[in-house]
Write a structure and sequence with these properties.
alpha/beta, 24% helix, six-stranded parallel beta sheet, 7 helices, 21% strand, globular, two-stranded antiparallel sheet
């Protein structure tokens, strides 16, 4: 019988915007439904989490660093790292129990989403935010084993979803149906292109957290920066 899997997202910002809130709720719900655990790792000083997130079933909050929590079993922790030489595969289910995402700032596949790493709008490609700490590099140097999720940037919930499909459902990374940079229709005259890879559902639509499309439509005229 396989060991229960744990997904850890590092959230290092003092606030949690609506985009992250919807993503984290989706991760918590999907992790619970699959029999996995979801930990949101916050900075030691904490983060101002909305009540809807704190009340979410399946969400566990951890204030200690990944290094401290898993100090005695670091060999069982997988760091989702775009610089890793090896892609995540179903056989990694035997080698890892914990999968770490986010709080990892830079040009990455599995990111902490806009408010932690990128500033963007409909007219420009994502720009790297300044003054951030590259946690992927830090954890890599501390000996955490890395795996890649492919070459295209994903939202945080997509990265966790893909990892769960590979590890728990044993679907090879390249066999997962994807949709890259989908257009979201705002109204009959306007649409916006999302600069991410998503899992594609049976109807050919990108899998997004509940409420995400409405959030994008509601704030589209402000640019993505105001979603944060």
């Amino acid at each position: 019988m396989s060991t229960q899997k744990t997904y850890v997202v590092e959230h290092l910002d003092p606030e949690c915007g609506p985009w992250s809130t919807l993503e984290y709720i989706a991760i918590a719900q999907e992790s619970t439904n699959s029999g996995a655990q979801f930990y949101l790792s916050l900075a030691p000083q904490g983060s101002d989490l909305p009540e809807s997130l704190r009340a979410c079933e399946g969400l566990q909050i951890e204030y200690r660093s990944v290094e401290d929590v898993y100090r005695d079993r670091k060999h069982r922790v997988c760091l989702l790292d775009p610089a890793a030489k090896q892609e995540l595969s179903p056989k990694d289910e035997d080698d890892f129990d914990v999968f770490v995402f986010g709080g990892i700032l830079g040009i990455l596949v599995c990111m902490q989403c806009y408010e932690n790493a990128w500033v963007t709008n409909r007219q420009t490609k994502p720009q790297r935010a300044e003054g951030r700490v590259d946690r992927t590099s830090e954890l890599r140097k501390k000996g955490f084993t890395g795996r890649r999720l492919g070459p295209v940037q994903m939202t945080t919930d997509t990265a966790v979803r893909v990892t769960r499909m590979v590890i728990q459902e044993q679907i090879p990374l390249n066999d997962i149906p994807y949709i890259d940079h989908p257009e979201i229709r705002i109204d009959e005259h306007e649409s916006t292109e999302m600069p991410f890879r998503y899992v594609k559902d049976a109807q050919g639509r990108p899998v997004m957290p509940e409420g995400m499309v409405d959030l994008i439509k509601k704030d589209s005229e402000k640019g993505f920066g105001d979603l944060l």
